[in-house]
From TrEMBL:
<keyword id="KW-0653">Protein transport</keyword>
<keyword id="KW-1003">Cell membrane</keyword>
<keyword id="KW-0813">Transport</keyword>
<dbReference type="GO" id="GO:0005886">
    <property type="term" value="C:plasma membrane"/>
</dbReference>
<dbReference type="GO" id="GO:0017038">
    <property type="term" value="P:protein import"/>
</dbReference>
<feature type="transmembrane region" description="Helical">
    <location>
        <begin position="180"/>
        <end position="202"/>
    </location>
</feature>
<keyword id="KW-1133">Transmembrane helix</keyword>
<dbReference type="Pfam" id="PF01618">
    <property type="entry name" value="MotA_ExbB"/>
</dbReference>
<keyword id="KW-0812">Transmembrane</keyword>
<protein>
    <submittedName>
        <fullName>Outer membrane transport energization protein ExbB</fullName>
    </submittedName>
</protein>
<feature type="domain" description="MotA/TolQ/ExbB proton channel">
    <location>
        <begin position="95"/>
        <end position="217"/>
    </location>
</feature>
<keyword id="KW-0472">Membrane</keyword>
<comment type="similarity">
    <text>Belongs to the exbB/tolQ family.</text>
</comment>
<dbReference type="InterPro" id="IPR002898">
    <property type="entry name" value="MotA_ExbB_proton_chnl"/>
</dbReference>
<feature type="transmembrane region" description="Helical">
    <location>
        <begin position="38"/>
        <end position="56"/>
    </location>
</feature>
<dbReference type="InterPro" id="IPR050790">
    <property type="entry name" value="ExbB/TolQ_transport"/>
</dbReference>
<feature type="transmembrane region" description="Helical">
    <location>
        <begin position="136"/>
        <end position="160"/>
    </location>
</feature>
Length: 231
């Protein structure tokens, strides 16, 4: 009987241990951090929404800007060689892309010195690059600011924990420290997540933008080389 009693006691202990276990959802984890933690989490969530919006808006804009007909430059050179300037300008207007706008700017300067045409194309190119990079700097800012805001939450959480500990009369109770620790940990993780997302999306947009810039440069050089060819 003593052996059976011991086994039964062990089973009861295990059952009690299992009944104590509980799960913690993300919402409960955030709400456990107190008001200060929730405010910082909300700020980080807003930054994440802004970063996501800018990323997809720029990706679609860059994708549209990179679409150029493979036969576009051949048609432009044929029109220019045959003196059909109006047809070349109309073709550029139909394309409506950064490359076509640069070529259109160069076409309007045909008859002037090649240096003037090159300068006009370069000035138009700077404007196109500015349009491609619109709001991208915001992503870079978010990638740096988000972790700092998360670390701010860490400091606030530790201050709360130390304050609660100082007022606990020398007895350390985990439930007293829980709110500050939740604030410290959740804000740190949230800040790092938002910062990583913003950093990755920023670099991806930079790579995509550089491809369009190289495309613009290549077509501009091809257009200027054609104008410089002897007749």
């Amino acid at each position: 009987m003593s052996l059976l009693s011991a086994i039964q006691d062990e089973v009861d202990v295990l059952a009690d241990g299992e009944s104590v276990e509980k799960t913690l959802s993300i919402i409960e984890l955030i709400s456990s951090g107190g008001t200060s933690g929730m405010v910082i989490i909300i700020i980080l969530f807003v930054l994440l929404i802004v970063a996501t919006y800018i990323y997809f808006e720029r990706i679609f804009a860059i994708k549209a800007a990179s679409k150029v007909d493979s036969n576009f430059m051949n048609q432009i050179k044929d029109h220019v060689s045959n003196g059909k300037i109006d047809s070349a300008q109309m073709l550029c207007a139909q394309q409506n892309s950064p490359v076509s706008r640069l070529i259109a700017k160069g076409i309007t300067r045909i008859g002037k010195p090649l240096e003037d045409i090159n300068t006009a194309i370069e000035n138009a190119g700077r404007l196109e690059i500015y349009n491609l990079e619109k709001n991208v700097s915001v992503l870079a800012t978010i990638s740096g600011v988000a972790p700092m805001i998360g670390f701010l939450g860490t400091v606030v959480g530790m201050i709360i924990s130390i304050f609660e500990l100082a007022n606990a009369g020398g007895t350390i109770q985990m439930d007293v420290l829980a709110s500050g620790l939740y604030t410290a940990m959740t804000t740190t993780v949230a800040g790092l997540i938002v910062g990583i997302v913003a950093y990755v999306t920023y670099n991806h947009i930079v790579v995509k933008t550089n491809k369009v810039v190289y495309q613009m440069e290549a077509n501009s050089v091809e257009f200027l080389d054609h104008l410089n060819e002897p007749i």
